[in-house]
Amino acid sequence: MKTKVAILGIVAALAAGGVATAWLDGTGPFAKSDKGNTTGVASDGNHAVASADSRFVTLDKLIVMLHTPNAARAHYLALDLVFQTDAKKEKQVKEQLPLLRSTAYHALSGFSVEDIRGMDVDQLSSVLQKAYVEVYGGTGAVPFYSVQVDKQMLE
């Protein structure tokens, strides 16, 4: 019985050592490769993943009056947005915050309260990302990797 426990202990230690080595080396299932990505930022399929070079630029207090036909009172959407970029383009994103604000307002002002309530945060980010790609004339021209909703309030 003691030899079985000793053998199981050795096997467990070897397995743990192999997993730890693979994790530290970034090999096997722990590989950090993002083949086909030319943006310089890792991606998990739907979102850009922060790297050591990532910078985040905030656009605070975007207020959008929503389309409300036949409503007794006006409705609005308040958002704080975060743009993920790199150190090289951080200044450009900061300088273009008025364009980014205007584009977001234009993209969202045609939605009704019901439309916004029916969207999750990822769908809202996707609407904004598509609007920015259209304004900049293509994905490669956009000075940031992703736009994320930091805060959202629907009134």
TrEMBL record:
Principal location class: membrane
Pfam families named in the record: FliL
Protein origin, superkingdom: Bacteria
UniProt keyword Chaperone present: no
Location of this chain's protein in the cell: Cell inner membrane; Cell membrane
Entry-linked InterPro entries: FliL (IPR005503)
Signal peptide, first to last residue: 1-22
Keyword Ribonucleoprotein: no
Any coiled-coil regions, as ranges: none
Keywords assigned by UniProt, alphabetized: Cell inner membrane, Cell membrane, Cell projection, Chemotaxis, Cilium, Flagellar rotation, Flagellum, Membrane, Signal, Transmembrane, Transmembrane helix
Family note: Belongs to the FliL family.
Protein name per the record: Flagellar protein FliL
